């Protein structure tokens, strides 16, 4: 349920306020009882939810009055009869909503600030910073570029609503693909056979899957794991699957000695694509499969091609259709008890249907973004002696992918052909992330490798033990000194301090391991 609105209809004592909450007193000067409803601006095409009832005034000058606790996370729209009042409440502020009669059919609604809110962004601001790196290893100098890109990606470790997954439409596997290209090229040049490398790829993927299922499974929060409700998909499982497919494709087409290729023919400017056309064909076929399943697969009780959140979204018409085909496939193949039970859409859209953000259908698009990262690696390899060419190609890829995203979304959040959606790993989500990844990679490449203005420290050190840092964070996030009992759990400042201390501890640990040349690789 949304923690947005909690009523306290009978008490006249001040209601205790938590973080991201405010007090709203509704004063009714009408001659009839009224019901107050609300909706959030983050809730697209949502049904209004009931805030509570307020009795009529007892006598002139004595309005009926009820206190409510409201959320300050997003702008709300309050509705009384046919009148609507949009307002963004401030944290710990006190407000009054006055209801007055203008005519028998018209109600005047006005909000008055009784006590100013605190400025949580200055006085008590909080930024949840948790390091959670994707899989990569010590491949080459370009790895430093990859490591910097992944710094401060919050992958479920943050404790603030504004760093959690988007409620519905709104991790880069990209850089893992870049590392795959650099690593396989290096190993082929070193004399390793493709079959031996394939065995390593398979074994590494299996290890990632096992670690994800049995060590950092989020169901541990509910107690000991059982086979009956073991969550099968997950972050590392998704990484392992993407790594397996993309690395296997690269092993089929990769060339170890690129210096033997001529750069004088007319088509040499497209070497980084043309030489690997079989892999591109496979990825495009996979994307067609994703499109067909997403938009053509019939889902019982739901519109074909539905991409919405269900619940109270879409005016409550498709309450049990959360995630459309993606969620249906997961429930059908894995079972409802083996997928993530608490999707982010529960918070705003009040959905009851489980939806796994690392589900089966979305894995196809994670392969796509990893493959786009692989393309970035191919560019680095083919044009390693031409920094300008590398940067130009990165920017061109970023532009092309950005245009595709603009077309798919019509430059909007909830409209367009395919909205940007993290929960479903929609095609526009992938193209948008890849767009920014190419641009950011170009900038980091210029700063680190071309100009050598920065080595990537201190973020370089966690990257050299990325899997250890990620697993360690997930396992020990509730242990001291990464976590402690707060004196004031509703303080942004204390949350900020705790997260910064935890982040600093892992950077320090990774630095010590780096100095001692201890690296955990799988």
Automatic annotation (TrEMBL):
<feature type="transmembrane region" description="Helical">
    <location>
        <begin position="168"/>
        <end position="189"/>
    </location>
</feature>
<feature type="transmembrane region" description="Helical">
    <location>
        <begin position="360"/>
        <end position="382"/>
    </location>
</feature>
<keyword id="KW-0812">Transmembrane</keyword>
<feature type="transmembrane region" description="Helical">
    <location>
        <begin position="496"/>
        <end position="514"/>
    </location>
</feature>
<keyword id="KW-1133">Transmembrane helix</keyword>
<feature type="transmembrane region" description="Helical">
    <location>
        <begin position="394"/>
        <end position="418"/>
    </location>
</feature>
<feature type="transmembrane region" description="Helical">
    <location>
        <begin position="240"/>
        <end position="261"/>
    </location>
</feature>
<feature type="transmembrane region" description="Helical">
    <location>
        <begin position="459"/>
        <end position="476"/>
    </location>
</feature>
<protein>
    <recommendedName>
        <fullName>Heparan-alpha-glucosaminide N-acetyltransferase</fullName>
    </recommendedName>
</protein>
<feature type="transmembrane region" description="Helical">
    <location>
        <begin position="424"/>
        <end position="447"/>
    </location>
</feature>
<keyword id="KW-0472">Membrane</keyword>
<feature type="transmembrane region" description="Helical">
    <location>
        <begin position="273"/>
        <end position="297"/>
    </location>
</feature>
<feature type="transmembrane region" description="Helical">
    <location>
        <begin position="201"/>
        <end position="220"/>
    </location>
</feature>
<feature type="transmembrane region" description="Helical">
    <location>
        <begin position="145"/>
        <end position="162"/>
    </location>
</feature>
